[in-house]
Amino acid sequence: MINVLQKGFYSTIQDLGRFGYQDYGVPYSGALDKQAAIVANTLLGNHENDAVLEITMTGPKLKFECDTLICLSGANMNPQINKQLIKNNKVFKVNKNDVLSFGKLDSGFRCYLAVLGGFKSEEIMNSRSMYHKITQQSTIKKGENLTIENTTFNYKTHHSNLRVNMSYIGKSTLEVYQGPEFKYLSASNQELLLRSNFTISKFNNRMAYQLEESLANKLDSIITSPVLPGTVQLTPSGKLIILMKDCQTTGGYPRVLQLSESAIQSLAQKLTGDKLQFKCL
Amino acid sequence: MKFQLEYKSYHDRAILVEWPPKIDKSILRDIMLFKSKIISDNNKNRLELRSAYNSLLIVYKEAVCFEAEIEVLRTMYSSGSVETSLTSKLWKIPVCYEDDYALDLQYISNAKGISKEAIIQKHSEVVYTVYFIGFLPGFLYLGGLNEDLEIPRKSTPRLKIEKGAVAIGGNQTGVYPIESPGGWNIIGNSPIEFFNSKNNPPCFAKAGDQIQFIPVKISTYDKIKSQVENNTYIIESSMIYD
């Protein structure tokens, strides 16, 4: 068990997502930065779909009620075990009563905590990813106990380090494909979309990131049609909305671009005010 | 199969197939038939099939070669295999249109110059078609609303619409499966659960099914609601063969 002393700004349990239920209107959910979740799990020898804690902007304070191994990846939030700084992308042993806390956000926006065997929260429709109205909880709560595997294990200190390419954090160029309605944009709007600098607005969360700048839009809405995480929608007022993993399954705004999976990961590590450009693959 | 389809790459692992941009039962039927052909083709790289009014999205596990895959899909669409008959169901959904639940019925009555009784009659005499599920888990996109009942969405959406609310927005009608913010005009409430994550599948209805709303008194509503909560209510349904 892990006792939540402080919950942080927005901490949710996520695996890689809830698949196969989109035709019933169920969002995918899942770790926004898939690579970070996989790296943290893999270093522990977990299955890559094991549930991790997705920590946004400000970290929680967690007290371990049993011995285990942990690994963090993604944003650098100056993590500490008993106030001793530890590193991302490295396995650490924690003992019963140890406290994991976080400091200042140095890079990125979302950090992933994996524990040996994964978090064992409720599994609904083959996934532990928290989502409002699907799982009972939509974030972790102060005072609750998070269930983790309580197994005995042999731990040897490893002095080897894994070099993980973290350059996707802070990368401002997002690789995109043309969306289904891209070709209906005027030539000048196509040009603007692929040449301009955009800024992330304060309206950003697991559902979508809205951009500050707008395009003078002449495209009509479309008949409601499927959308995907990473779809860039253009609203009638010219706003650009980039859908993330908790997005609805269908939408009626023209889909002008589609982010690649690695671009979604880069975007997941951005916050209000960050700049970005789109680059067509 | 008789439509001119457009195939578009969506990303490296998805293809969008589009029918003419219309809300039309013959298009829905064509989408359902194509979907069943693709499913029976049993290609393990095809992970998901999602449909809407005039579109079918095919999501793949691994990146696909578009030209080759689109050619496979085209051949499959035009193949003269015997049309499998689609089985669908007609569901009878109890709805209480009484004042406690019909928050906007009086407003629609005034705006449209139609009596509340006539609105209820027009809303419940139609058999609606389920085109797809989207927007919220278990939200059915229904076609068939009587034109007399079309009314724009509210300019300021409500922050909270009750689970089960039956509502009209523009030329569409639907039931809110879970509590949600929303801008549609509320004319009643259904005690039926349109989404339950503990059931597999989580929704009783699927694209191609039909829905009819049956007006019930508040006393009947309460009785059904408690049966639904105890898992003892069985929704009245019948098979449709076409």
Short characterization:
By secondary structure, chain A is mainly beta.
Features:
heterodimer; A: 281 residues; six-stranded antiparallel sheet; 3 helices; 20 strands; 10% helix; 33% strand; B: 242 residues; five-stranded mixed sheet; 5 helices
Protein model, in words:
The complex is a heterodimer of chains A (281) and B (242). With 281 residues, chain A is mainly beta. Chain A has 3 helices and 20 strands. Chain A has helices spanning 34-44, 187-195, 261-268, and strands at residues 2-6, 10-14, 52-56, 61-64, 68-76, 80-81, 84-85, 91-94, 99-101, 107-115, 145-146, 173-178, 198-204, 208-214, 225-226, 231-234, 239-243, 250-251, 255-259, 275-280. In chain A, the strands form 4 sheets. In chain A, strands 12-19-16-17-14-13-20 form a 7-stranded mixed barrel. A 6-stranded antiparallel beta sheet of chain A has the order 7-6-9-4-1-11, with no helix packed on it. The longest helix of chain A has 11 residues, at 34-44. The model of chain A has no long low-confidence stretch (mean pLDDT 94). In chain B, 24% of the residues lie in helices and 31% in strands. Chain B has helices spanning 25-41, 66-78, 105-112, 116-124, 218-229; strands at 6-11, 14-18, 46-51, 55-60, 87-95, 128-133, 140-143, 158-161, 165-169, 172-175, 180-182, 185-189, 210-215, 236-241. The longest helix of chain B has 17 residues, at 25-41. The mean pLDDT of chain B is 93. At the A-B interface, strand 15 and strand 19 of A face strand 1, strand 2, strand 3 and strand 4 of B.
Largest interface: A-B, 30 and 43 residues
Q: What structural class results from the helix and strand content of chain B?
A: alpha+beta
Average pLDDT of chain A, to the nearest integer?
94
Helix segment count of chain A?
3
Helix fraction of chain A by DSSP (H/I, runs of at least 4): under 10%
3D shape of chain B: elongated
Give the N-terminus to C-terminus distance of chain A in angstroms. 45 Å
Summed up, the helix count of chain B is 5
Average pLDDT of chain B, to the nearest integer? 93
The helix/strand series of chain A, from N terminus to C terminus, equals EEHEEEEEEEEEEHEEEEEEEHE
**Helix content estimate of chain B:** 10-25%
Q: What amount of the residues of chain A lies in strands? A: 25-35%
Quantity of strands of chain B, as a count: 14
Question: Sheet with the most strands of chain B?
Answer: 5 strands, mixed
Number of strands of chain A: 20
Q: Which assembly state applies to the chains in this document?
A: heterodimer
Q: Distance N terminus to C terminus of chain B?
A: 16 Å
